[in-house]
Amino acid sequence: MGTLKGLPFALFLIGGASALLAQSPTYGVGRAPTAEELRAWDISIGPTGEELPPGRGTAKDGAPVYRAKCGSCHGATGIGGSAPILKSRAPKDDELWSRGRILPLRSPFAVLVWDYINRAMPLNREGTLTPDEVYALTAFLLFINDLVPEDQILDAQSLPKVKMPIGDAYAPLPDWKPRTPRLKGYPY
Ligand code: HEC
After folding, report:
1. Engineered SS bond to 160: which of 31, 49, 88, 115, CB 3.0-4.6 Å?
2. Alpha-carbon distances of 21 from 24, 29, 70, 172, rounded to whole Å
3. Rounded to the nearest whole angstrom, what is the distance from the C-alpha of residue 117 to the centroid of ligand 1?
4. Residue 77 Cα to chain centre, angstroms
5. Nearest to 121 by CA among 173, 167, 78
6. 142 CB under 6 A from ligand 1?
7. pLDDT 10s digits, 122-179
């Protein structure tokens, strides 16, 4: 009986909520962003790199920029600073799975290294790097991880073609069972 008595009240609540939704009241706060504001926020670069801006750089160009703008936190060689390591400290064979995220080594796509630096670094001075500097820094970090030669020019065309050593090891295993590794090739 109790449930039946409660039913009309529940229906009243549901009905009330949908009436509110249907009305969609206007509160008079906020405004539509301008095209320029949208451009400033719309900086995401997908794995294919089609949104990459013009610009170019090599590891040689990136080394002095790294020293000036990154080394104080990440260490002169990408190791030994207070911020996360940017180069593997493990022996070559184990480096893919050594401790630390090491984005410029373990990212599934080289383009994501560009996107991360462009979006998030240098910490507290985000958005101050030019596209050329970001290409050069990406080249430098890929170079110290033995992924590109020191004089390879990275730009919107060549960067998406850089093969990352992780291959397709981030692909989830189709027949995954609880308490076994979730990703192909990932030992943890
Ligand atoms: C003020 C200190 C500081 C400076 C300067 C700085 N970083 Fe960082 N960086 C950090 C911190 C802290 C993190 C970790 C952020 C997090 O985990 O959210 C980080 C993370 C990163 C990562 C990702 C590391 C990973 O494996 O996940 C990259 C790549 C990177 N920084 C590159 C750079 C580059 C290139 C520069 C120079 C343009 C730079 N950083 C300057 C502090 C700094």
Report:
1. 49
2. 5, 18, 50, 39
3. 8
4. 22
5. 78
6. no
7. 999 999 999 999 999 999 999 999 999 999 999 999 999 999 988 777 777 788 888 8
